[in-house]
Write a structure and sequence with these properties.
2 strands, about 70% helix, globular
Length: about 200
């Protein structure tokens, strides 16, 4: 569970780097969508502060004791400082927003990555993608980092993003099909650039 939880902090960067190297057009799509998803998530944190289960139990004492599996694992590995950073505090000084539980960006981004690679993926890859999404959700609840509600809202953000960007792309294609002159206009600068590069 510790391993699954920590993938959140580098998964998007690794995927973006690989796409940039091997499929630049897909990289541009990935970059745009994940920036939008993250922006809406962080905006929600500001507008709707929400305490995670561990915070309600540890700081507000309104729930029974919760064992933060991910945080405790850092200590078992002898990496107490790294655990404090991931916890958002060192020596009692908060480094992050402790009431940023809704939406769960862990859940949102794991589903986004799965959906992004779903089309065209082989059956065994799809099984791994589903397992990753569900494994992340289980980890978040079991370790006291999120309520199920937070996870569902994170998934909802991803679904809205993908549906919205898909609808916008279809609208642009239909507009371009009905107005061929727009395609011709958009192609002129590209031709001009190529001709300029061809000049001695």
């Amino acid at each position: 569970m510790w391993g699954i939880y920590m993938t959140h902090f580098f998964m998007a960067l690794v995927v973006a780097g690989l796409l940039w190297r091997f499929s630049y057009l897909r990289f541009r799509q990935f970059r745009k969508q994940i920036i939008i998803l993250s922006t809406f998530g962080f905006a929600t944190y500001v507008l709707y502060p929400a305490a995670p289960p561990w915070y309600v139990a540890d700081r507000l004492h309104q729930l029974p004791e919760i064992y933060r599996t991910v945080f405790i694992t850092w200590g078992k590995l002898g990496l107490h400082t790294a655990g404090s950073i991931s916890d958002g505090a060192i020596d009692g000084n908060d480094l992050g927003n402790q009431v940023a539980a809704v939406p769960s960006m862990h859940a949102a981004i794991s589903l986004f990555v799965a959906c992004f690679f779903w089309r065209g993926a082989r059956a065994w890859v799809r099984v791994l993608l589903v397992a990753y999404v569900l494994g992340m959700a289980f980890t978040l609840v079991y370790s006291g980092e999120h309520y199920l509600f937070d996870i569902v809202i994170g998934w909802l953000y991803t679904v809205v993003l993908l549906c919205g960007t898909g609808a916008l792309a279809r609208y642009r294609r239909s507009r371009a099909d009905s107005h061929p002159e727009l395609l011709e206009l958009a192609a002129k600068p590209a031709r001009a650039d190529r001709s300029t590069l061809a000049d001695p």
